[in-house]
């Protein structure tokens, strides 16, 4: 049974103070346990949409509801935002510390997720001693330590080199399959969206209208061999076509 949460957006609208409509009347259903990629040009409302789903800002109209109603949620940003004076282990355990979890328990849980993201050997290092990819792994571990049912990610791999990004994409996909959580992943990268997600939406440049809602016709198990598979290329072409349309 999926451990994810279902999302229901009905008539969601977000308008800035200058009158610019970022998100028009959006209707969107995300099934529990789904991996949804959100694509679109800069300024189309991708991050605004994610912030509303995260309940960091409210829509001006419409509703966003969850099933279950109060899901545990984690947010991963493009910058890892690690505390430089804390070790990898301390950074990963931070959400549990803020929740009042006992020291022994929170460190045990943090060590478990560090194993999952391949950082067990560096738990005593500080952020300045890590590569960009390793810092992002710590950020991911910190997000996963509370066992969220909803994981929201805003271009987390955009600043990384291609090889590092490929490795993190494959690892994230594996973690999603293991945990069954719902993931909403904002990205500018068509190849990243096609490889990671089992469904992708493309937002229009204006008013945040959904131009394409596409379920990826790809194997459930994905590895680097898929990157040269014609099926992935075909999905990328479909997403590109929607991105290029005005």
Task: Detail the topology: elements first, then pairings.
Elements: E1 6-15, E2 21-30, E3 35-39, H1 46-53, E4 61-67, E5 73-76, H2 88-98, H3 103-116, H4 132-144, E6 150-154, H5 162-179, E7 182-186, H6 190-196, E8 199-203, E9 210-215, H7 230-244
Parallel strand pairs: 3-7, 3-8, 5-6, 6-7
Antiparallel strand pairs: 1-2, 1-4, 8-9
Shape: globular
Strand content: 15-25%
- Name given to the CATH architecture of the largest domain: 3-Layer(aba) Sandwich
Order of helices and strands: EEEHEEHHHEHEHEEH
Largest sheet: 6 strands, mixed
Number of helices: 7
Assembly annotation = single chain
Instruction: Specify the CATH homologous superfamily of the largest domain.
Output: P-loop containing nucleotide triphosphate hydrolases
Task: Specify the structural class.
Answer: alpha/beta
Report Rg: 18 Å
On the 0 to 100 scale, the average pLDDT is 91
Terminal CA distance reads 40 Å
Query: How many E strands?
Result: 9
CATH class of the largest domain: Alpha Beta
Strand order of the largest sheet: 5-6-7-3-8-9
């Amino acid at each position: 049974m999926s451990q994810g949460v279902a999302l229901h957006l009905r008539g969601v609208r977000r308008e800035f103070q200058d009158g610019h409509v970022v998100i028009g009347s959006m209707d969107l259903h995300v099934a529990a346990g789904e991996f949804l990629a959100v694509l679109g040009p800069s300024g189309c409302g991708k991050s605004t949409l994610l912030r509303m789903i995260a309940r960091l800002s409210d829509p001006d109209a419409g509703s966003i509801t969850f099933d279950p109603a109060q899901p545990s949620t984690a947010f991963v940003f493009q910058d890892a935002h690690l505390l430089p004076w804390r070790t990898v282990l301390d950074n990963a355990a931070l959400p549990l510390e803020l929740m009042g979890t006992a020291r022994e328990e929170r460190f045990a849980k943090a060590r478990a997720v560090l194993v999952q993201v391949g950082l067990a050997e560096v738990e005593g290092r500080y952020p300045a001693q890590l590569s960009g990819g390793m810092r992002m792994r710590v950020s991911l571990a910190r997000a996963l330590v509370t066992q969220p049912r909803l994981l929201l990610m805003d271009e987390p791999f955009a600043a990384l080199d291609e090889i590092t990004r490929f490795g993190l994409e494959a690892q994230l996909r594996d973690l999603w399959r293991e945990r069954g959580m719902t993931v909403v992943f904002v990205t500018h990268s068509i190849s990243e969206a096609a490889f990671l997600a089992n469904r992708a939406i493309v937002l229009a440049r204006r008013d945040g209208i959904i131009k394409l809602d596409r379920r990826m016709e790809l194997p459930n198990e994905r590895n680097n061999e898929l990157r040269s598979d014609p099926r992935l290329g075909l999905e990328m072409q479909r997403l590109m076509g929607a991105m290029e349309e005005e």
